[in-house]
Structures are given as structure tokens and as C-alpha cells.
Amino acid sequence: MKKVFIICTVRGATPEYKKELEDYVDLLEADGVDVHLPHRDTNQKATGYEICNQNANAISMADEIHIFYNPDSQGTHFDMGVAFSLNKKIVVVKCPEYGEGKSFMRMLSEWQKEIT
User: Fold this and answer.
1) Are 97 and 70 in contact (CB under 8 A)?
2) CATH number assigned to the domain comprising residue 50
């Protein structure tokens, strides 16, 4: 069974954003994919260190990482760093448009093409 970790905003996530994530996860799970959705599957009452450790472990076990990129989310950047260091295949589900120059948004596009 394919395992997917969702990188997304948790802190400050609106109910509408969570619904968007959950609808996406429902589609994956209906196809038999085992999904780790942080606001649902990571103990959010744990310390910050423990949350990062739980997510890092789940990322290491995942076959793919699906990203809902938010440039303002510190946790998103941490989880991306873990996935990058593990050379994980990514699927960018949602990302703001980017212009010229270097940016995390451009890097995600390059990474997605590089690791197939």
C-alpha cells in the first residue's frame, strides 16, 4: 500500500483549509492510499520537538510527500527540509504562483521534476 505524508499548515489553519485537506485525503484514501495528515494523525498536544519528531518519522516512512505549500508556515518549511534530506518524491498539490528569481515555490517545482 502506498504511503503519503501531507505537508501543510497546521497552526492557524482555518476550518475551510482543513476541509480542503480532508477532501483531498478522502480521495487518496478511497484509492487505497495510507495517508498521514498532520492535524489528524500527529499528536498536536505534544511539544514542538515531539511534533517535529513524529512528522519526521512519518515522512521517512512515506513513499510520496504531497505538499500544500504556504510560505508563511514554519512547520511546512521544517517538514520540507526533512523530505528534501531524505530525497523523497513530492507532489505539489497547491502552491502560490511565483515570478522571477529564487524562491521556495520555484524550488518545489524544480524538485518535483527532478525526483520522479
Assistant:
1) no
2) 3.40.50.10140
Position 101 pLDDT exceeds 90 = no
- What per-residue string of b and e applies to 94-110 under the rule 16 or more CB within 10 Å gives b? ebeeeeeeeebeeebee
67 beta partners: 7, 92
Phi/psi of residue 4, nearest 5 degrees:
-125, 135
Q: Provide φ and ψ at 17, rounded to 5°.
A: -65, -45
| pLDDT over threshold 90, residue 96 | no
Query: pLDDT (tens digit, 9 = 90+) per residue, 18-34?
Result: 999 999 999 999 999 99
